[in-house]
Automatic annotation (TrEMBL):
Belongs to the ATP-dependent AMP-binding enzyme family. This is Amino acid adenylation domain-containing protein. GO terms for biological process: amino acid activation for nonribosomal peptide biosynthetic process; antibiotic biosynthetic process; lipid biosynthetic process; monocarboxylic acid biosynthetic process; secondary metabolite biosynthetic process. Its cofactor is pantetheine 4'-phosphate. One of its GO terms (cellular component) is cytosol. Keywords: Phosphopantetheine, Phosphoprotein. Gene3D superfamilies: 3.30.300.30, ACP-like, Chloramphenicol acetyltransferase-like domain, N-terminal domain of ligase-like. It comes from the Bacteria. Residues 14-42 are annotated as: Disordered. InterPro entries: AA_adenyl_dom, ACP-like_sf, AMP-bd_C, AMP-bd_C_sf, AMP-binding_CS, AMP-dep_synth/lig_dom, ANL_N_sf, CAT-like_dom_sf. GO terms for molecular function: catalytic activity; phosphopantetheine binding. Residues 421-496 form the Carrier domain.
Length: 687
């Protein structure tokens, strides 16, 4: 049969490689889809295992999805190569749980077909109801289950509340990092009937699965929380450094995959394909020539037993106040609290320029934010403590069963409604300053600065605002000790009136570093030039642009801010900074033509610039021209010369200078009252 014409779904394609008419020539859409399969003689040529079997779209960093084209042969060899591990047969019952837009569905669809098993198509509403899905597994006597860890944790929670008897013999994990420690409860409940649990790492571009790690109760308890095991026999996994050299066991590198499972590339994206599927420099060692490998973007380390530890996405590390942080490390600490059933930690920037860590927790016993904060504080340094805790009934998942970060709500940034109102002018002023720095509309005198998202950088800013507004000396330590308006107001009763802060004056010939600069200089000496401490910002500029005026504006900004024309060195007394004469510094602004599809690649490449702090000024910019009236400006500042807060004033000064230079005049601004070198001298004298 055929569907009536009015019931044929219309699918609109939006891809440069797709036919403009969707593959039809007009008329009844059903006419383009014969009721019977094409005979070989009706085809342009016989099907080949290298022909594309399907295209699955994955998210792109620019917001434009990438169509991954996978050939027929890849799917067949996937099951052939993994057959000895599983022993699937005609008695198995599988579920199609995932969307066919997610490549886990390839495993779910073709597994039962190739082995003669039965496939249960799970209704969409059941995939969103762990209790209903658990009942389906029992009712249909499902033996093979494929789950992302996020979905399985919710299923395990439903299993705790049920006495349902399951027929599972194999559970395959994929799609996300698996925290092995969270399986202990499952093994406890299923001590006698536990199915085989298998952790399989994979990517769409390498046809579903890459590695295999068989678990049992003992291995799950003893293994690293990120173990993904060994590669599938017909694949090779390299762990390489940034120069494509193999790393030693225990040393972190990026994973590259080579062998039989690689996709053909990205549909209609030859430049992106060439970038992500480079030539395999080690192919000759395996008797191959001219083959490719896939750059995964995932970090890993090789274990001494040959297995792999997965360490997360290279681009999932977040940078908070100069520290590089793995959210998974924080999640593991919070998940260890007995009241926490599920947890996700993400970096949010709900207030521009103030990125902060937010923990989303599912608790069974109503643990408070203070309880969880104290638990985390007992295991993590201050810079890794979440600024806010949000309690949810369940973590939101995407149709693919992964954490839906876009559906996570912003934490409330308002104070408690039951606290006390300000009781005098000083408390009113302090409430106003707290609210200003935290970006909240209101708070009470009993609200804690840190419960509302405060952190060390904001505490420093608040201490400065209190010092300038109330004229009293206030240390950041005092703010940590008394983080409420009520407590701080009482503490200020005996505080000394503010005398001197940093001032411009006569400087010694030898300028010391501030304590923050000293730490970064030490790291620079230890690690060598590295992009790790680059602070970057990209601005899209639409309209007429004068590159010459923009370069002159940068020159004005570097002249105005001494910290942007400072170099560092060592002498017999330790580290020192030298402010270069403005007349001797020429700011360069490279301009490069680039297409939209290569923009992200060029920005990432440029952002990896390594500053030599002994010779380079710690600021750099590049201008990328997309068209006559479309540009993207990449700005980079080394952390030794600024922080996240510095970019705002820097960009404002740049805008003012550009406005002036575009009008063929110099910027009209007052000189800065103090420079960073003055602050370093004051800090050394005060502390």
């Amino acid at each position: 049969g055929r569907l009536p014409a009015h019931e044929v779904p219309r699918i609109v394609l939006d891809d440069a490689a797709a036919p403009a008419d969707g593959g039809t020539t007009g008329g009844d859409p059903a006419d383009a889809h014969p009721a019977t399969d094409l005979a070989q003689g009706e085809r342009v040529r016989p099907l080949d295992p290298r022909d594309t079997a399907y295209v699955i779209y994955t998210s792109g960093s620019t917001g434009r999805p990438k169509g991954v084209a996978v050939p027929h042969g890849n799917v067949v060899r996937l099951f052939s190569a993994t057959a000895p591990w599983f022993g699937f047969d005609e008695h198995d019952v599988w579920t199609l749980f995932h969307s066919y837009a997610f490549d886990f569905s390839v495993w779910e669809l073709w597994g039962p077909l190739l082995h003669g098993g039965r496939l249960v198509v799970v209704p969409h509403d059941v995939t969103r109801d762990p209790a209903a899905f658990l009942a389906l597994l029992a009712r249909e006597r499902v033996t093979v289950l494929n789950q992302t860890p996020s979905a399985f944790h919710q299923l395990a929670a439903a299993d705790r509340e049920s006495r349902t008897e399951l027929a599972l013999r194999t559970v395959v994990f994929g799609g996300e990092a698996l925290d092995l420690s969270r399986l202990a409860d499952w093994y406890e409940r299923h001590a006698e009937d536990a199915p085989a649990l298998v952790n399989m790492y994979g990517i769409t571009e390498t046809t579903v699965h890459v590695s295999h790690f068989a678990l049992d109760r003992a291995t799950a308890a003893a293994s690293s929380a990120s173990t993904i095991g060994v590669n599938i026999p017909d694949l090779r996994v390299y762990v390489l450094d940034d120069r494509l050299r193999p790393t030693a066991p225990g040393v972190t590198g990026e994973m590259y995959v080579a062998g039989a499972g690689l996709a053909r590339g990205y549909l209609g994206r030859p430049a992106l394909t060439a970038d992500r599927f480079p030539a395999d420099p080690y192919a000759a060692l395996f008797g191959e020539r001219g083959t490719r490998m896939y750059r995964t973007g995932d970090l890993a380390r090789r274990r001494t037993d040959g297995g792999l530890d997965y360490l997360g996405r290279a681009d999932q590390q977040v940078k908070i106040r100069g520290f590089r942080i793995e959210p998974g490390e924080i999640e593991a600490v919070l998940a260890a609290h007995p009241a926490v059933d599920d947890v996700a930690v993400v970096a949010r920037e709900d207030v521009q320029g103030d990125p902060r860590l937010v923990a989303y927790v599912v608790t069974g016993s109503g643990a408070t934010a203070r309880t969880l904060h104290d638990h985390a504080a007992g295991h993590l340094p201050d810079h890794m403590l979440p600024s806010a805790f949000v309690t949810l009934d369940v973590l939101p998942l995407t149709p693919n069963g992964k954490l839906d970060t876009k559906a996570l709500p912003a934490p409330a940034r308002t104070g408690q409604v039951t606290g006390r109102a300000p009781r005098g002018p000083r408390e009113e002023i302090l409430c106003s300053l707290f609210a200003e720095v935290l970006g909240v509309p209101r708070l009470t005198v009993d609200d804690s600065f840190f419960d509302l998202g405060g952190h060390s950088l904001l505490a420093t800013r608040l201490a400065g605002r209190i010092r300038s507004t109330l004229g009293v000396e206030l240390s950041v330590r005092r703010l940590f000790e008394t983080p409420t308006v009520a407590g701080l107001s009482a503490a200020l009763d005996g505080a000394e009136r503010s005398g001197t802060g940093p001032t411009a004056g006569e400087r010694p010939e030898r300028l010391p570093l501030s304590y923050a600069q000293q730490r970064l200089w030490f790291l620079h000496q230890l690690e060598g030039p590295s992009p790790t401490y680059n602070i970057t910002g990209a601005l899209r500029l639409t309209g007429d642009l004068d590159p010459g005026a923009l370069r002159a504006a940068f020159q004005d900004v570097v002249t105005r801010h001494e910290s942007l024309r400072t170099v560092f060195s060592e002498d017999g007394h330790g580290a020192r900074q030298t402010v270069l004469d403005a007349a001797g510094v020429r700011f360069e602004l490279p301009v490069a033509d680039v297409t939209e599809d290569r923009l992200d690649e060029r920005l990432e490449e440029a952002a990896r610039h390594c500053f030599d702090l002994t010779a380079d000024i710690p600021v750099r910019a590049e201008l990328f021209r997309l068209g006559a009236r479309e540009h993207v400006l990449l700005l980079m500042v080394h952390h030794i010369a600024g922080d996240g807060w510095s970019l705002g004033p820097l960009i404002r000064d740049l805008a003012a200078a550009y406005t002036a230079r575009a009008a063929r005049r110099a910027p009209d601004w007052a000189p800065l009252p103090v420079q960073y070198a003055d602050f370093a001298l004051w800090q050394r004298a005060a502390l």
